[in-house]
Amino acid sequence: MPRPPAQPIRLRGLLKENAGLAALLPEAERLRELNRLFARAVGPALARACRVAAVQDGAAVVYCGNGAAAARLRAQAATVCRALATGPVPVGELKIKLRADWAQAPRPEKPGMGQQALAAWEELESSVADPELKAAVARLLRHQRG
């Protein structure tokens, strides 16, 4: 007998149902907003290496994954504090801590298409009559070939 399909549950709903987790939801939302503001202030490369982990007594605790990121963040501390001050929690200073396991892992490089797939796309390109589709396939092939 087939099982009925499971109903998808939003994470927010799941957290609200559990009283212990529901208490953490507002703090998680504040940290998400602070990290969004942080990423906008420092740029994507530094945001991947550092995270706002907490706010204690008006100081944002930021963990950095390497020393270079921590040094760059220290140089930008005043700008970052001004950006975070507009967030949900008042932030007046940064406490920058180094933690090597905190940074996001770099994205693995995606393998390109194989020769057989490229040949199939080339065949499609030569057989398509629609000029817009033909141009799109040509762009895809140029991109895949580097």
UniProtKB/TrEMBL annotation:
<protein>
    <submittedName>
        <fullName>Uncharacterized protein DUF721</fullName>
    </submittedName>
</protein>
<dbReference type="Pfam" id="PF05258">
    <property type="entry name" value="DciA"/>
</dbReference>
<dbReference type="InterPro" id="IPR007922">
    <property type="entry name" value="DciA-like"/>
</dbReference>
